[in-house]
Write a structure and sequence with these properties.
single chain; 266 residues; alpha+beta; Glutaredoxin; seven-stranded mixed β-sheet; two-stranded antiparallel ribbon; elongated
Length: 266
């Protein structure tokens, strides 16, 4: 809405304040467009370029208002855009990870999951081989989808090391099957019914689904994106418990650690 107002303002009156409002309103929409159209699994933590551009736009509008060259509506719109981007970066993107129960060099905590055929498995079943467990929020999360795509690209190399790769989400069987059909890779797909595993591991995100996506069949509660690597004895050797959903490990991180596990003496 702010961007539409800014464009109309610029078309009708290409003033400095209109340019300022465009600078304020455009960055967050460009970021969302980049997520959904181009795709990325990660960004910088603080997005300083976007914050700087939005802040500059607000400053321009504010100065123009002091000079009586901008109206109150334009100033309010610029202020909303400024507060919005700062809230997104420093509040919405953050997780409280203090509840996590996953500890390095300890056995994988107990939990249960359901596969696409309705069969139940437990955490102990991952013993016997190194395992890469990816807890993702759902098909609706563009960063999760790109992260999975990255792992799919490395699938053959990982499997050659004897690694099990499990994708785990609280989304429905229908959505999970849709994801399985998308990738021509035989990942192990599991459903975390009612976020029971997420709660057991302390990675549960209450009301973590963006508002409005419920109409597509997703539950409001979800999971914090988490990656766990266990060895053949089901001991946690790596866990990514980032407090920012946009900051995720590079695929090389998994490769290096799994190489180290693979090279250990039996």
């Amino acid at each position: 809405m702010i961007l539409i107002y800014a464009i109309r303002l610029f078309v009708n009156n290409p003033s400095i304040s209109a340019i300022g409002l465009l600078l304020s309103a455009t960055p967050i929409l460009l970021l969302m467009g980049y997520f959904f159209i181009v795709g990325t699994a990660r960004t910088s933590r603080n997005l300083w370029l976007l914050l700087g551009t939005t802040s500059l736009g607000f400053a321009i509008v504010f100065i123009e208002r002091l000079r009586s060259n901008a109206d109150d509506t334009t100033l309010i719109m610029a202020a909303v855009a400024l507060v919005g981007i700062w809230a997104y970066v420093f509040w919405y993107s953050k997780f409280d990870r203090s509840s996590s129960k996953i500890q390095l060099h300890t056995p994988l905590p107990a939990f249960s999951l359901t596969d696409l055929h309705g069969n139940s498995i437990n955490a102990a079943s991952f013993a016997g081989k190194p395992s890469l467990l990816i807890f993702y929020r759902g098909n609706w999360c563009p960063l999760c989808m790109v992260q999975i795509k990255e792992v799919a690209s490395d699938y053959q190399e990982l499997v050659s090391k004897g690694v099990r790769i499990a994708l785990i989400s609280p989304q429905s069987e229908k959505h999970t099957q849709s994801l399985a059909n998308k990738f021509n890779v035989p990942f192990e797909y599991y459903i975390d019914q009612d976020n029971q595993a997420a709660k057991s591991l302390g990675i549960f995100a209450q009301n973590g689904l963006p508002f409005g996506l419920q109409v597509f069949g997703y539950q409001s509660d979800t999971v914090m994106p988490t990656v766990i690597i266990t060895d053949s004895e089901n001991i946690v050797q790596y866990v990514d418990i980032t407090d920012n959903y946009r900051v995720r490990p590079e695929p090389q991180t998994f490769q290096k650690l799994l190489n180290d596990i693979d090279s250990r003496p039996s």
